[in-house]
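Question: what's this shape?

___
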Amino acid sequence: MPRITDVTCVLVSERLPAEWAAAHGVSSKRDEALVFITTEDGRVGVGESYHAFSPGTIPGIVEGHIREILVGRDSSEIQLLWEEVFFSTGQLGSAAVAAMSGVDIALWDLLGRRTGLPVATLLGGGGVDLVPAYVGCMCLGFQDAASLREEVKLYLSQGYTAMKLRGGKDLEADVEAVATAREVAGPHVDLMIDANSAYSPPESLQLAKRLERYGTFWLEDPFDFSVKYHHADMGWLRKASPVPICSGGNVYTRFDVRALIDAGGVDYLTPDVCKCGGLSEAMRIAALASAHNIIVAPHTVVGIGTVAGVHYTAAIPTHVRGHMEWDASVVNPLRDEMCRPALSIVDGCIAVPTGPGLGVEVPSAAMLERFSFIPGREISMPPRRRRWDPALRNPARQVRREPVTTAVK
């Protein structure tokens, strides 16, 4: 099979039409780290690595470490290459897993382009034409009740039957947002809330108890997933919570998922193919979830990663396949313009691409130049605050880190 001749990583960005706010900060742009793998026959595969709000780090790992392992190797040896890259980057932690995710996706894309088959079919998802979606990503963020009502009405009119609000502002605001959305959506729409790690475990339980009356479908990531005891705390919350608990978008590899399950688990698992180790590892995570009867509801954000996520969702074992996250924003050019042909929505479901590989064109040099990287972090990421923090009662003491506003080239 053709051997790999080059591996590169290119950062791209898009300016948001309006500033967007959630518990993890304020954002005025979206970033994406694209991975390109070229083989000696001239074919190019494309993937996406999660940038982890530190985009400059990912190209360094891809081009400074992983490239050396892959160049000269058989591009079809996807599992062998995964193992070698993973165990050679063990001391780099989750950043290396995010970096290798895009590499793995690009290798699957290459295999699909060479065989003429969609990645979903290669993964075993043949026969699945549509995957159900829930509204999430950069939708339903912090806003007043009137604008939230209008946004919910818009998604209802588009046929969506599940929506996820951004929580973490404070307990009162989160409960009010869910109550408002439920009033508009009615009893038959699944309403979730993602607290983006804003709360302590006790606060999270308080929130869960107050959300029960609104039939909340799940409470996601209410406390920090980067600390050592996250899995144990999540297991404790799941046992005590009256509403289902969700996590996994920031849980890396099957080994980390196993630790989460062993500590008490979650009701809904949200792996992201751009974070967890790529399509190869995401399939192993789905198998692990299947063995424990945990519903898999894939996480995603923009662009190539979303396309890869659709293929992955189509291949998840049927009895644990949940809805896939979908950004329903009117403007999302990294997905709708860079990924051609664009993904299509049919009555709240995403059509699985049928072209070879990921089913989209490899972004051209002109397209990459059009979406040149905007320096700075994607989200401001202020420090976490708890209910008793004096700064919450004194706005003058609050620190607000503004996102970089460098103009797009």
User: Anything to note?
Assistant: Residues 336 and 342 are 5 Å apart (CA to CA). The two ends are 40 Å apart (CA to CA).
